[in-house]
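User: Please run a holo structure prediction.
Assistant: Happy to. Please share the sequence and the ligand.
User: Here you go; the ligand is zinc ion.
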Amino acid sequence: MTNDIASLIPVAISWIGALSDLIARTGLPLNDAQITIARSVGVVHPEKIRLLGVDAIPVPDDAKLRQAAHSSGLLSPNMAGLTLGYGIYIRRGQATTRLLSHEFRHVYQYEQAGSIESFISIYLQQILTVGYQLAPLEIDAREHEIQGLTARY
Ligand SMILES: [Zn+2]
């Protein structure tokens, strides 16, 4: 791990922890159909998930983290969702089955990692070395997307 990545991890953990707490306080729990989608992509505790609709996904205050997120392709102006532990930002009007199943798969990945800290260490390492598109955790999330028309619920 390069020093750059190592120094960004605590900054990212603190940013994500704060937003995750905010979504836990202000977001909405899933409805039954959304719980079914979350379970179908492996989420163990879908009842803990909260969704928060926003006009724009927040970007990090920290300039280095913001720049790293942009240059890796993670944060872009047209991004529709961002998962932070059990908290999920969804841009208003974008809550499709496909997007929700993708973000729920990230929740599953957080659960498997065991904590926000361990997920972020792995995830940042991936996107800052191979980029967002090729990061194995993103490939896994894309492979678990459920298309609306073929959803089994
Ligand atoms: Zn993703």
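The pocket of zinc ion is lined by residues 102, 106, 138, 141 (CB under 6 Å).
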